[in-house]
Design goal:
Blueprint: E1 4-11, E2 20-27, E3 30-35, E4 45-47, E5 52-55, E6 57-62, H1 64-70, E7 74-75, H2 82-94, E8 103-108, H3 119-126, E9 131-135, E10 140-143, H4 145-150, E11 160-161, H5 162-174, H6 182-193, E12 197-202, H7 208-217, E13 224-229, H8 234-240, E14 255-263, H9 297-309, E15 314-318, H10 321-334, E16 338-342, H11 348-357, E17 359-363, H12 367-378, H13 389-394, E18 399-401, H14 412-421, H15 438-443, E19 459-462, H16 473-481, E20 485-490, E21 493-497
Parallel strand pairs: 1-4, 1-5, 6-12, 7-8, 8-9, 12-13, 13-14, 14-15, 15-16, 16-17, 17-18
Antiparallel strand pairs: 1-2, 2-3, 5-19, 9-10, 10-11, 19-20, 20-21
Helix pairs in contact: 2-3, 9-10, 10-11, 14-16
């Protein structure tokens, strides 16, 4: 592990401490010493005068492979209906050579469309080229006939959702064209490092716990990864004896075993998030007016009990208030630790249960920007309980921020700004009573770390004060979104430097 001495940085206090200027010595991948005018032992020095120093930033929820590949997908976000999406896809295909590979489009919001797209109209726009169109929340997939044939699936007339789609998504992810190249991975890690990210929790559907050690061995370094496992992979992980927190073989200390990820309900965008009350405006004959669970209670309880016995933490996806209620119930029954991913819509009586049970609320604040208009239509009677981060913090819950990339951009400053302002445009904050301060949002983005001896040698130098607050929340959020990152350091080694002279 490299040694380094960071000189004269403004240390940002995340627990209310006063700002102070200090040096930070890194040795063996850890913070070895913090103090004024530390003695040099010949290690490289980084002049941080005029910069602000924070612990390295983490994204607590990423689908890494899909995000890397999404940088080349056809963008259908914002399309008003299937007709517009088909037209956009047809235009994009006209400019791409036909190499026989499956093509992915991404970003539509099913709830925002007046009707679902049909296979026939997608066929008319795409011809014989296999195309998969994934919703922006990743809970719905719309395939043309060529893609259905390519994947060995029977003919159908419309999209797939939830578990039916997840099974198909796993097939898509296994295709050769779905695997990122080394060049794409290097570029993606560099992009994350440039925004101050030192680590991610990878919730990818494919075998992230096998892929990342291979990537590290191939030279893709500069990022810590906690790799999750899904129920269909659980037997393999248990057989290998890997427990949450274990360093994975071949990962060189950068890759550790993460949690078991369970998708317990759907999403707002697909109107499948499991709620206590019906969605507004649902058809009278809709079989699931409140959304639906992807697992029944006994199955979920069995999974969580087995997870605890195997020494794995659990990350339960729960968006609707009924799904969150049941997830907390089952976590309490099984006595397992971990997180609820999204925690988007909560009953008031469930907010305090997060702290009481030691369950982390893993929230993606940028989703409130995307979901605001949809929620105001179909959840207008409950938007005061959406993304209740202020309430969770006030109740003593541990908060972890992330992106759910590719659903949102894996930019920690976007998430922090959204948590502070709760708006992504010129409109006033959406339920500003649930806003948090920049200090609180930043503290929820550093994986619980602080700038103290013995902590990981993962640091970020900033060119502006991240705790600065303007005359309005909008002004503060704008400053956060444009936060200048000067250097990112992982395990004592710079992964990004934008400073004159660098480290030397």
């Amino acid at each position: 592990m490299a040694a380094m001495l960071v000189r004269e940085a403004h240390l940002v206090g995340l627990d209310g401490e006063a700002e102070r200027v200090a040096d930070v010595r890194l040795e063996g991948g850890l913070i070895a010493e913090v103090g004024r005018r530390l003695r040099s032992y010949g290690e490289p020095e980084l002049d941080a005068a005029g910069c602000w120093l924070i612990p390295g930033l983490w994204d607590a929820h990423v689908h890494a492979t899909q995000w890397v590949r999404s940088l080349g997908w056809i963008d259908v976000a914002g399309c008003a209906g299937p007709e517009q999406a088909c037209a956009r896809i047809a235009t994009a295909l006209a400019g791409r050579p036909d190499d026989g590979r499956l093509i992915t489009a991404f970003g539509f919001r099913a709830t925002a469309w007046p009707r679902a797209g049909t296979v026939a109209e997608l066929d008319a726009a795409t011809g014989a080229r296999p195309v998969v169109v994934m919703s922006g929340d990743a809970h719905c997939g719309w395939l043309n006939s060529a893609a259905l044939t390519r994947l060995g699936l029977p003919p159908r007339t419309g999209p797939l959702t939830e578990n039916d789609w997840f099974a198909v998504a796993a097939q898509v992810n296994a295709l050769p064209e779905a695997q990122p190249t080394l060049a794409e991975l290097h570029a993606a890690v560099a992009r994350l490092s440039a925004r101050g990210l030192v680590g991610i929790v990878d919730m990818e559907f494919s075998d992230a716990y096998l892929a990342w050690p291979r990537r590290v061995s191939d030279g893709v370094r500069g990022l810590r990864v906690r790799a999750s496992v899904y129920p269909h992979q659980l037997d393999e992980v248990i057989a290998r004896g890997w427990r949450t927190g274990d360093a994975l073989p071949g990962g060189d200390g950068l890759v550790t075993m993460g949690p078991l990820k369970i998708i317990s309900d759907g999403s707002l965008g697909t109107r499948t998030a499991w709620c206590c009350a019906p969605y507004l405006g649902m058809a009278a004959d809709d079989p699931h007016p409140c959304g639906a669970a992807n697992y029944d209670h006994p199955t979920l309880a069995t999974l969580l009990t087995r997870t605890r016995e195997a020494g794995l933490a659990v990350a339960v996806h729960a968006i609707g208030d009924r799904a969150n209620q049941v997830a907390l119930d089952v976590l309490a029954e099984a006595g397992v630790t971990g997180s609820i991913e999204h925690a988007q819509l909560l009953r008031r009586e469930d907010v305090a249960r997060f702290a009481a049970l030691g369950v982390t609320a893993s929230v993606q604040p940028a989703h409130l920007i995307d979901d605001r208009d949809m929620a105001n239509r179909v959840w207008a009677d409950r938007t005061d309980r959406l993304f209740p981060v202020r309430s969770l913090l006030d109740a003593g819950a541990r908060l972890a921020l992330g992106s759910d990339a590719p659903v949102a951009e894996p930019d920690p400053w976007l998430a922090i700004a959204a948590a502070v302002h709760r708006s992504g445009d010129d409109r006033p904050a959406w339920h500003p009573e649930e806003s948090v301060t920049p200090r609180e949002a930043l503290a929820a983005s550093v994986d619980g770390q602080r700038l103290v001896p013995g902590a990981p040698g993962d640091l970020v130098l900033l060119g502006a004060d991240p705790l600065w607050q303007g005359d309005s929340a909008a002004e503060t959020a704008a400053s956060l979104r444009s936060m200048p990152v000067r250097a990112t350091i992982v395990a004592g080694r710079p992964t990004y430097l934008a400073m004159a002279g660098g480290a030397g």
